[in-house]
Amino acid sequence: MSAPETAREETSQAGKPVLEIRNISKTFHLPGAEAFKAVDDVSLSVHPGECVAIVGESGSGKSTVARMALSLLRPDSGQVFLEGRSLLDMSPRELRTRRLAMQPVFQDPSASFNPRRSVWSSLRQAIAQGTTPEPDMRARALELLSQVELRPPENYVERYPHELSGGQRQRLAIARALAPRPRLIIADEPLSGADVSIRAQILNLLLDLQAQQNIAFLLITHDMLVARALAQRVVVMHHGRIVEQGETEQVMQSPREAYTQRLLAAVLDVDLAPPPTPTPTPASPSAPPDSLPNKARSA
Amino acid sequence: MRYYIAQRLFWSVVIVFGIVVVNFVLTRIVPGDPTTALVGEFPVPQAYIDQIRHDFGLDQSIPAQLYYYLVHVAQGDLGFSFVGRQNVLPLILRRAGVTLILMLPSLTLASIIGVLIAVRAARRAGSSLNTFLTALSLAGASVPVFWLAQMLVMLFAVRLGWLPAQGMVSVRANYTGLAYFLDLLRHLILPSFCITIFYLAIVVRVARTSMLEMLHQDFVLTARAKGLSENQVVVRHVLRNALIPVITVIGYNFGYSLTGAILTETVFAWPGIGGLFVSSIHYQDFPVLSGIFLLAATAVVAANFITDILYAVVDPRVRVATLKPA
Amino acid sequence: MYPALRRMFTNPVGIVSGAVVLLLALAAVAGPTLYPVDPFALSVEVNAAPSWLHPLGTDDLGRDVLAGMIEGAKISLFVGISAALATTVIGVLVGAVAGYVGGRVDAALMRLSEFFQVMPTFILAVLIVSLIGPGLTRVIIVIAVLSWPQTARVARGEIMRVSQLDYVDAARCMGIPGWRILYGEVIPNAIAPALALASLIMAQAILLEASLSFLGLASPDIISWGRILSVAQQYLFTAWWLSVFSGMAIFITVLAFNLLGDALADALNPRHAH
Ligand SMILES: Nc1ncnc2c1ncn2[C@@H]1O[C@H](COP(=O)(O)OP(=O)(O)OP(=O)(O)O)[C@@H](O)[C@H]1O
Ligand SMILES: [Mg+2]
């Protein structure tokens, strides 16, 4: 256990983070209600090829952090750095090109696609924005569909979102996120919209992507088991604040905070069996392929 | 609450100010000389035109002109009607009283009947009665009220000869006391019947919607669960709560009600605002037309303001949530 | 959209009102060919009752009322369609900007629309038309200027709903400029209620034009239903046909557009789909 752990430790200190969030806060003012501090002084970073999970109960501010990271919501204070550059200080034009390095996958696959665009039209839109212009966008679209195992891709490319199942749509959402060749994917509960059988498949897919393409993930989930399957590090949020963060296994095995213990107990009560490991070797979810940290370091 | 009233009051004042400015702008979009808009197309003495030019600073800059205009309006001076040979404000106010004689009974009647109908309809959601009522209220909203008025005249006055077709009192008879009152009543029947139908359409529509919403609310479900009969539920809980939106409808639709009254008056030669309105159109008596607009708009703002406040008193949620139902 | 249309045409109200509107359009387009009588031609037979020669009678100048009604159908449809189009364009633009940009722009635009909504439309329209003079184009402009707030409010709400959907966020993350997201992703998915409202606005516009003409605010070189009613007002005691037919035409047309708008709104509202 200790060997990969130290390796990862090195990664997080040596490599430059893809995403760094520094002391961001957000307060919502609803008319007639008291001001509500949804995110309070949150800092975290994600390194190349790494998967960091944010866990916490509903309403703890996870999605708000994700939206601020994605520059979909402006923090009241604090900074967000994407590959070392502050998103908040960029010109709109610069932001438009730079943000392609970071793509979202949302929770609800039914709201993730414009119902008036075919799969091809949606993918084309995403590909066309890529930094490397594609001479043959159609070929790229088919390749993306294959990558997320929508095969044969020709069967899917002309369909409309409502002609896809929830699981297929979520795969398509991942394909779209991959289209601009991002370095980071921010996935907000990508599994909770899908039912159990599909969850394992999508989990598998995410693991493969992480291993093969060296894409970093910021994974938002309230499910400790999912975090355990995918993430090297976890950040635990409660009432808008980070209450605990560290190596996944460490946090899982010896949580320091009572809140984290409760979160763990909640899942473990329901399901004491090991997480639904998608890969045949049970060790791999918590210990991703050894090549990963090395790759990250060399990048 | 006090803050809410102050806020609404402030907004109302802003709107009234805006309306005066709109009025000012309108007098300047007239092709040609702005004095035309201030005087009307009626032949008037040149001395009066010169005086108007001076009073309203028409040879000065636009902001200065606006200032003069505002000062005049603020002093209650809405101009002089050469057609009516008197000042616009008292002329309109006198006519407004006559219009109210027509409007108030009709509004009252329409509210009572409308709510009763809506209650019946809401209790049988989805029934054919309900569909029929919806269609009826839609028909009421689609009928040109002046045409309805013409039909009533042709049927009850011309064909059947039951009721007078025109005016507020019989001109040749010099009734006094009770006889005068009865004569007025006879003249009132047709026009007020006409606009009652006009008002009924909108009252039914809105009351029905709010009633349906009400019937699905928790307190009604609780009352039902407690074993109150359907009638008791409707009377005790729904009706009382649904009256609020009905009042709101009337308050927020004052302008619409006024329009109905004006158009009805023109057919029945009722000597209220409507009659004045039509003759002013005919004689191009712009001071009167813009005076009517100014007063009507102000009355609408006032009605909205009062309704806002009533609403907030009855339902405190309003203050924090939306300010006004769209 | 398609299921909505199917729903719409399984609704009897939708079918009937749609048919009436079609019929009206037919009357306006093919009427002059099917009934080739000049609506402006004067004759000595003034205020003649309906007969074989003049199926709906003649007016005070001896003009054929049926021909005038066909002419009026043209005018009403023209005013209704143009005014609804102009209103919808203005309303959707304002609503889109308000709902999409939000913040102070939204507050300012909504205040402005509230201001316009408070003003008594009809009286203001009369005042404006009296001042600038009659004319169809002017009437259409006045209607559009006074009716856009309704559309703006509806469009704004829908734009706000759609623009917080995930696919809009996804588009933003692709670096697509805001205005392209607005017209490519948001407006196409938010426009349906505004279109249903357009039918109601058409009804209002036709009614308003008829009211203005009735009060004598139509230019003298056109014949419209409201104008015929205005003539009828002087002959209520003698020429019933002047009032009955043209009033009926306004009523049925306005009712049809109102019903059509309701049916459309119903069909587009997924909650009402049973
Ligand atoms: N646009 C907004 N306006 C007002 N309040 C908001 C807004 N967005 C989020 N909130 C509030 O902020 C808090 C945090 O919301 P957030 O969506 O970040 O939680 P979450 O951790 O993602 O929860 P979940 O697991 O349910 O998705 C919640 O209480 C929510 O009501
Ligand atoms: Mg969330």
UniProtKB/TrEMBL annotation, chain A:
InterPro entries listed in its UniProt record: AAA+_ATPase (IPR003593), ABC_transp_ATP-bind (IPR050319), ABC_transporter-like_ATP-bd (IPR003439), ABC_transporter-like_CS (IPR017871), P-loop_NTPase (IPR027417)
Keywords from the UniProt entry: ATP-binding, Nucleotide-binding, Transport
Entry similarity comment: Belongs to the ABC transporter superfamily.
PROSITE patterns: ABC_TRANSPORTER_1, ABC_TRANSPORTER_2
MF annotations from Gene Ontology: ATP binding; ATP hydrolysis activity
GO biological processes: transmembrane transport
Organism superkingdom: Bacteria
Protein name from the UniProt record: ATP-binding cassette domain-containing protein
Nucleotide-binding in keyword set: yes
Keyword Signal tagged: no
Ranges of biased composition (kind: Pro residues): 273-291
Domain ABC transporter intervals: 19-264
Region (Disordered): 270-299
UniProtKB/TrEMBL annotation, chain B:
Topological relation to the membrane, as annotated: Multi-pass membrane protein
Chain segments annotated as transmembrane: 9-30, 96-119, 131-158, 188-207, 242-268, 288-314
Keywords: Cell membrane, Membrane, Transmembrane, Transmembrane helix, Transport
GO biological process per UniProt: transmembrane transport
A Pfam family the protein falls into: BPD_transp_1_N
GO CC annotation: plasma membrane
Family: Belongs to the binding-protein-dependent transport system permease family.
Residue span, ABC transmembrane type-1 domain: 96-311
Protein name: ABC transporter permease
Organism of origin: Ancylobacter mangrovi
Cellular location(s): Cell membrane
Primary residence: membrane
KW Calcium (keyword) present: no
UniProtKB/TrEMBL annotation, chain C:
InterPro entries: BP-dependent_transpt_permease (IPR050366), MetI-like (IPR000515), MetI-like_sf (IPR035906), OppC_N (IPR025966)
Protein name: ABC transporter permease
Domain spans labelled ABC transmembrane type-1: 73-261
Source species of the chain: Ancylobacter mangrovi
Family stated for the protein in its record: Belongs to the binding-protein-dependent transport system permease family.
Key word Protein transport present: yes
Principal cellular location given in the protein's record: membrane
GO biological process: peptide transport; protein transport; transmembrane transport
Transmembrane region(s): 75-101, 122-148, 190-218, 239-260
CDD domains: TM_PBP2
Membrane-topology descriptor: Multi-pass membrane protein
A matching Pfam family: BPD_transp_1
Subcellular location as annotated: Cell membrane
Keyword terms, alphabetized: Cell membrane, Membrane, Peptide transport, Protein transport, Transmembrane, Transmembrane helix, Transport
Keyword Protein transport: yes
